[in-house]
Amino acid sequence: RVWGRAPLTLGGTLAPVAPREHLDLDFELKALDLARLAPYTLRHVGRPIESGLGAVNVGMNVAKHELDSSTRVVLNRLEFGERVESPDATTLPVAAAVSLLKDGDGRIQLDIPVQGDLDDPEFSYRGAVLDTLRNLITKVVATPFKLVDGMVSYGGKMFRPEEMGRIGFPPDEDELPREEALKLDALLDAFRANPELELEVEGGATADIDRPDRSLPDLARRRAEAVVAHLVAGGVSPERIYQGDPRIGPDALGEDGRAITRLDVR
User: Fold this and answer.
1) Could you tell me how far CA 202 lies from the centroid of its own chain?
2) Are the CB atoms for 265 and 216 separated by under 8 Å?
3) Which of 72, 83, 22, 18 is nearest to 48 (CA)?
4) What is the mean pLDDT of each run of 10 residues along the chain (266 residues)?
């Protein structure tokens, strides 16, 4: 038992003198108190785990130096505490990914397959698992508004999920266009249903369409403020919204010829 409570089972067979030739291993850990990992997540995630139970099941087979394994991780009711500054914390939005991955019962299930050649000096089982988790987190939050699947209908308009994180402004304007306001309104229910989500808003401006004789950073900031004000008016706590540095230049120009203010889940 781990920490005196979580049952741990380990079994299998191996060739003692040549484990790379044959190994068949099953590992199962149940009912792990995730809050006991708080010091680790405080350092590496920037948030302590407050509560939750975890289970891990690993099936690993090695035959003639080739590894084939499957890992299943189940997290129930995982909750993080408040953000804490840590110099070792990852920049990946782990807490946001956890919130997005939960099902209706607060459960997350991850299946992580790993294959590799044990004779390859660049192969690492731990590295392969971590790479899979990094890619999963990046993918989940890359379209933060994958809170919704398929097209989103709101106010008589249809939006694709990938459009939800881009708010367009006409040249020289900082007033939120009506259609873009509808896009934000479509997100409000999702943010109410996912109280752990935090949002970063980065205003954008570009001399390609905005007058270069005015302060483009100020214009970008006012655009971000317009987005933040609309979300706060819709019921999102201002403590959950961060205003990032303004984005100035060609990368702020959208395909539709408008300056883009970006939304990113943290």
Assistant:
1) 17
2) no
3) 83
4) 94 90 95 95 93 96 95 94 89 81 84 94 93 82 53 51 80 91 79 76 93 86 95 90 91 89 82
